[in-house]
Amino acid sequence: MMNYTNFTFAQATLLFGVVFLLPAIGTANLGNYLRINKGIASHLEMCPAGQDTIPVREQENFDESFGSPTYRPHDRDPFADKEEAPPKVIQPQKVGTDDFKPRLYKIPESYSGFKIEIKRVDKPLAASHDIFFQHGKVFAEKLKDGTFSYLLGDFSNAEEANKFLGDFLKQRYPKARVAEYEAGERLY
What we know:
Blueprint: H1 6-46, E1 104-105, E2 113-121, H2 130-134, E3 138-142, E4 148-155, H3 158-169, E5 177-182, E6 185-187
């Protein structure tokens, strides 16, 4: 096994640089140097001294400071000769939309099962009521006493309905209760 020392590593690095990198670097720099000098010389021949690409309309006096009382800028108002265009204003357009009407479902005549009554009111709820935005399928039913009942869910037994009511709805709707249906008729 060979032991490498710092000296042999340094020699190998130097050899690598001399053999591989120096010719490439030297050639590239020499070529660029010749091209740059040629480019500058040709540019100077085309542009006589004292001329600029932007024509000067009037010579300003740069000896005066910009804040002095005698300073006169080149153009007092560069926009004085231009007509002011009227402002572009896009007029608002009214777009007709239908009022939001909540989709209320009726209890099917053949339905037998359990639903959760979350709200019971004397008058129908407004279409903007939170119930219609926060719950998916809301069932509405007008009861025999003239009140309106709003119900959620579809449960096959009372245990499932009571568990769902206790876990998710009771805190938000303290008066919520489970309602049983048989052949589309509500059992009190």
